[in-house]
Amino acid sequence: TQSTWGFLLKHFDSSRISLRANMNEMTSPIHSNPNSWQYSQTPTMRIDSGTTQIPAFLSKTFDILDDPSTNHIVGWSESGLTFIIYDTATFCSQILPGHFKHNNLASFVRQLNIYGFQKVGNKHMWEFRHEKFHKGGRHELVEIKRKTPSKKDWGHLDETDSQRSEAILTELLQLKQRQELLEMNLIQVMNTNDSLWNDLVACKQQQREIQDNLQKVLYFLMTTYSQEGDKGDGVSMGLNPEQRPVQQPPIN
Predict the structure, then answer these.
(1) Mean pLDDT per 10-residue segment, the chain (252 residues)
(2) Phi, psi (5° rounding) for residue 128?
(3) Neighbour tally for 108: CB within 10 Å
């Protein structure tokens, strides 16, 4: 019985070793034929007799930093412990689309935060650090773990994001209503201004007409009284013949 158990254990160990070797061969990055079922696009690294894959985001980011042709855009710092994005505009328009499916700096930074990177240095400089992510340390990338919040944390995050979205949407609607109200008020002011201007023009026209009429009346009165004054008799003053003053003969 003991010999039988020994044979089975030995056979089981041999099968396990063979199976592990086949799995390593299947996932090995040395197979460069993309049509082969043994091909693996994600580089792998063996640790503690197991196989651990390097996250594609970390591997691509490391490749970007190791490219000397783009070090003026993004590259390692002098110490090699951090990396710096020197030109964010060019980084988004040229670097990100060539390695990722987007050109959004915020999405790239969000991925860094998910893997535990921290923004360091000047607040106006895009410099990031991770203790396992440094120049020449590609073998340590497998040790960088993605943050996995608990269900409670996820619920809190979802609730917070939902509240923020609702708050932003509410604020946008309020701003839109305010804008529409301001536009209506502006139109009313413009209409009122036009009406007032028309009234002012009409008033000025009436004033000119009144002045013209007054001048005509004054001219008529002045002409009439001037003519009556030249006659110098009662008729000119509108008196009846009986009411005319009797002229006395001159006294010698």
Answers:
(1) 51 52 46 38 43 84 93 93 93 92 89 92 86 92 81 54 70 82 88 88 90 88 76 52 55 54
(2) -130, 155
(3) 22
pLDDT of residue 79: 92
Name 117's Cβ contacts closer than 8 Å, sequence gap at least 6: 128, 129, 130, 133
Cα separation of 87 and 101, whole Å?
Answer: 19
Residue 249 is predicted with a pLDDT of 58
Q: What is the reported pLDDT for 168?
A: 80
CA distance 220 to 182: 56
Burial string for 162-201 (b: 16+ CB within 10 Å, else e) reads: eeeeeeeeeeeeeeeeeeeeeeeeeeeeeeeeeeeeeeee
Two tokens, residue 200: 């002012």
Give the amino acid at 218.
L
Question: For position 92, what pLDDT does the model report?
Answer: 93
- Would you give the distance in Å from CA 225 to the centre of its chain? 83
The CA-atom distances, in angstroms, between 207 and each of 115, 181, 182, 194, 228 are 82, 38, 37, 20, 32
Side-chain-side CA neighbours of 214 within 13 Å: the count stands at 6
